[in-house]
Amino acid sequence: MAARIEQLVTSGEFSLDGGTWQVDNNVWIVGDDTEAVVIDAAHDAAAIKEALGGRRLLAVVSTHAHNDHVDAAPELSDLTGAPVLLHPADEVLWRQTHPDRAPDGPLADGQEIAVAGTVLTVLHTPGHSPGAVSLYAPGLGTVFTGDTLFAGGPGATGRSFSDFPTIVASIRERLLTLPPETVVRTGHGDSTSVGAEAPHLAEWIARGH
User: Fold this and answer.
1) pTM over 0.85
2) Which whole number is the average pLDDT over 104-114?
3) Burial class (CB in 10 A: 0-12, 13-18, 19+), 85
């Protein structure tokens, strides 16, 4: 059976630099009726486990380590036995949420994660955080961008460990070079496409963060 994409929205808190905000997060499940991977285990491990049903979870893939994207990752790992994968450059952020539990494995640029006959290729897209990654699935015509690229522009860069010129370079060089019909599935809010976002690059740069 071909791989498919499922979306689960969970709600909780995002905390950084002394502030806390209520947020809704997109949790993405890629797989078939037998196996799956979860992209960004946010807020509610039990709800994610329920959405998986009886499928074997191969990995919990974290696009970055802000707490709202990884707060449920260790619990989901414990419930399923799946490893939590994170780019090492984001371990400084991971430790703010999980000081006593390390990620189970690293993510690296160009790494391929196979699930249900499709492949997710890791693209290191720093800027929102040092170890932020996107996951490109050409067979599904989509890229999962976490908080690097949203419908309407780049992710936030006004907080610790973020940098606006870096995120713009990541988007320009790693994401907007993908086919324009590629669907952009984001960490929060609505999906968009590479073709819809590409014309706005100069405007983002002029506006800054």
Assistant:
1) yes
2) 98
3) buried
